[in-house]
Amino acid sequence: MSIVVIGVNHRTGPLALLERVAVSVESLPKVIASLTSRVNIREAVVLSTCNRTEVYAVAERFHGAYADIRDFFCELGGLSPDELHPHLYSQHDDGAVAHLFDVAAGLDSAVLGETEILGQVRGAWELSQAEGGAKATLNLLFRHAIETGKRARTETAISRSTASVSHAAVEMAIERLGSLEGRRVLVVGAGDMGEGVAVALVAAGAKDITVANRTADRAEQLARRVGGRVVAFNELQTVIGGVDVLLTSTGSGSVLIDHDAVATARVGVDTPLLIVDIAVPRDVDSAVAGLPGVSLLDLDDLRDWAAKGIEKRSVEAESVRVIVSEEVERFTIDVTSRQAAPLVAQLHEHGESIRQGELDRFAARLASLDTTQRAAVEAVTKGIIAKLLHSPSVRLKDNVGTPSGERNAAAVRDLFDLS
């Protein structure tokens, strides 16, 4: 049994490919059920963000799991294996553990050290846990990953300055325009990313902010927070003609703002329009960039922009890598220690609780037994539990620290519902 990660991210695939393999929050339960139903996959967590779509899995056989997950990506994006293969990466065991810890710590992000990814890792794990995809092994792995991400941000300065994709999007806009003061800004999307954008806008001095979102309540809450106003989602075309900057980050899964809508909105408008689209899939039709007076930036531009700042954080990144290395070792020790003595003790405690529960259930029928008879019942029932648990206990101890030991330990925890 192995822990594996297989995926596509901003380093290995273009934005156009990331869009095709993005997984919406709404479809994640179905995706997790599909993955865990495959013969080579025991557990699965899917992490899909603007920078990556990755599957973390507990695999019965690595090569079989790789084929299953590769086929999943092909089905998801309508891709052939030949189209996908050059962009797909995989790691197993310690490599997979280190990769997840790098991700949680912000080392694998386009914006080095960004903070949003830690919440996304936690959210992916919690959703998979609720759907039955994450069990003993991945629960332990992701618990350690969250701890690693927290250590990286509290013990180093990796997340200071530009610490999120939404913050970076606003900084990139400022670099293009010089300042946001006096600019009319439209924010499309009031989710976590949209909220981050709006808050960063206020910090940058923007005062004229309009918010649009499919759910009006979310738009109103965000507008109140940043002192802005709300526009109905179906009135976007009208509003676009009157703004200087448009930042969009919805999870719609398809183009919301097309060429014709922007062209129509800008009839008679001479002022330039800067559009920053950080959604995956993109919210804005790429053809919009060809319109007079319109500049369109997307995640590819943001990654190029963010790369300039990586050198400034290289010292902090090295400190984080030391933390990741320490945490990978700690996880390995934890996995090993959880395989033998503590697990065997838990198993026997579980058996004893069942034995005692059954005796309590039949207490009335056993009330007439004398002391000798009662002792015999105790001895017989304890003997049955001991004999039933003897073989799995010995197997767990003998195979500790081996792939077989990991597989047996995970199976025992799952079968007997041991934490």
Please explain how this structure is put together.
This protein has 18 helices and 10 strands. The chain has helices at about 15-20, 30-35, 60-75, 80-85, 95-105, 115-130, 135-155, 165-175, 190-205, 215-225, 235-240, 260-265, 300-305, 315-340, 340-360, 365, 370-400, 405-415; strands at about 1-10, 40-50, 50-60, 90, 185-190, 210, 230, 245-250, 275, 295. Strand 5, helix 9 and strand 6 form a beta-alpha-beta unit. The strands form 2 sheets. It has a 6-stranded parallel sheet. The chain has a 4-stranded antiparallel sheet with strand order 2-3-1-4, sandwiched between helices. With about 425 residues, it is an alpha/beta fold. The chain has 3 domains: about 1-160, Glutamyl-tRNA reductase, N-terminal domain (Beta Polymerase, domain 2, 2-Layer Sandwich); about 165-305, NAD(P)-binding Rossmann-like Domain (Rossmann fold, 3-Layer(aba) Sandwich), CATH 3.40.50; about 340-395 and about 410-415, no CATH class. The longest helix is centred in the last third of the chain and has 28 residues, at about 370-400. The chain starts with a strand and ends with a helix.
